[in-house]
Specification:
The complex is a heterodimer.
Chain A: E1 7-16, E2 19-29, E3 34-38, H1 45-52, E4 60-65, H2 73-77, E5 79-82, H3 93-103, H4 109-118, H5 132-144, E6 150-154, H6 162-177, E7 181-186, H7 189-195, E8 198-203, E9 206-212, H8 213-219, E10 221-228, H9 234-239, E11 243-249, E12 252-258, H10 262-268, E13 273-278, H11 283-286, H12 288-296, H13 298-311
Parallel strand pairs in A: 3-7, 3-8, 5-6, 6-7
Antiparallel strand pairs in A: 1-2, 1-4, 8-9, 10-12, 10-13, 11-12
Helix pairs in contact in A: 3-5
Chain B: H1 5-13, H2 15-34, H3 36-41, H4 43-52, H5 55-60, H6 70-79, H7 82-105, H8 108-112, H9 118-147, H10 158-186, H11 189-208, H12 214-219, H13 224-229, H14 233-236, H15 240-263
Classes of the chains: A alpha/beta, B mainly alpha.
Chain lengths: 312, 267
Amino acid sequence: MNDAPSIHVDGLTKRFGKLTAVDDLTLQVWPGEVYGLLGPNGAGKSTSIRALMGFINPTSGRVGLLGGHARELEIRRQAGYVGDVTLDRGLRAGTLLSWYAGLRGGVPENRITELCSRLELDTSRKIGQLSTGNRQKVSIIQAFMHDPDVLILDEPTAGLDPLLQRTVLRMVRERRDAGTSVLYSSHTLPEVEAIADRVGILRAGALVREDTMANIRDVARQRLELRFAGDVPADVLRDAEGVATVDADGRTAHVVVDGSAADLIDRLAGLGVERITSHDDDLEDIFFEYYQDEQDSESNRDHTHEDQGVAR
Amino acid sequence: MKNGLILGQMLRERRRATLWWSLAIAALVLITAASYPSVKEAGSAFDQLVEQMPEGLLEMMGAADGLTTPAGYLNSQLYSNVLPIVLLIFGISAAAWTVAGSEREGTLEPLLANPVHRWQVAIERLTGTTLLLAVLTLVATVLLVAFRSPFELDELSVADLTAAGTAAFLLSLLFSGITYATGAATGSKGWAIAAGAGLATATYVLFGLSSLVDLFESLRWASPWYWFLQPSPLSEGWTFQAIGVPLLVVVPVIAAGTVVFTRRDLT
């Protein structure tokens, strides 16, 4: 590990009028590290990332990439960015990619071809005619094609099917192994769990927890739906380690587990479980303790919606 | 990075649309010019009509030189209204897209993730708008020069037609520049178009009514249409007010809009 972070955010605050979108955020990402920025929509992820990219100016605090600032061309030359953006709809995907490659001072044609075939993108079609997922591929390819030293990825797998999501995660890992620093924002835990070395949880613009993925897993809440062949053995479920609540509904049990589900799964052996469904898409639910007070108050919830509008 | 890639891309994307605009302007100019011999023939009747009109109305029509002279005819039928208005529609919509429009589409931000300066994107696209406006004006001017003999307009010299074309180009560049600068400074396409088209309309009305309304007459020095049409470059050639003043106004406006754009938050 080098002695300087490639991405640093130091006391970043961004206000839009009365709304504080990001509140005194501090984080560092080191070379060869993937940092997962986790938070629901409107938590300030995109705002932080747009400040890092130099698209918006911090109200206070500082941001930096690779020892400089994204406003410098030399820094942007080494950075790759996927954001919640639109690419020129009238252009063919291939035209946009070679235009961007030219702006970067040239990228080998076969590098672009390789990425396109890896993500199964047809470059002859106009971007406006592509599906959301295919447009996202164009965005990903332009961010990766020059083998950047720092990657800023804002929900990069949005709209991709699970198979391609895994391809993208593999591409991110390859860059990480080559020493690239990656800031990876997402609103779902499984995605971040699959890719991040460290995780920061953002809530209403503030970092409420920062830890290694391993430690985060210990507190993450899981919501499992178990379907049994016979009656629900509610007592067995309640006795298992980490189980917070059990709700039986006919042959289906809704179980909430804090941390590891290992003990619960052990005890289920031989009890005739036909299907296990996991509902862990909802971050507020998973990190109950961090979001609890937010859910208690209706006014705060409204605030979140406002936040969403501004942070795009 | 190489210079001119953003300009080149813009021109490539607008090739086809520019061709259509050129054809429309060519048709407009040719039909107008081709009608002159008939107007000239009916001249005495026209001139009688004109004599009965109040002077203010004639100025508003751009026909102070009379309707039946080549200069008076082209001014009243082309240079004081249709041609600049077509150029303005083209220029204002292109200029509104350069920064604010593409920002609203969402295409500006990914472009600026590449190693290009903000000012470079803005200026290359403004250059593109300027070049396309120049092409359209050139089409109109070249056709008038080429067909002035068959259409009995040869009283007008090549220099006069070139001066009038340049002045029309600069008039539309002025309002396109205001559109560009407003969009660059605010990021709002709506404000950009409102500023460019609104000022063009307001100053047009101000000039048009200036010979009828005393208040407007005392203010008409502020109207770019007054700089452009009174006196007309068709009869007076290269005047400072038609050629120099628009440039003196638009350059600082463009510079100010660009500077604000390099510093503000993208929307």
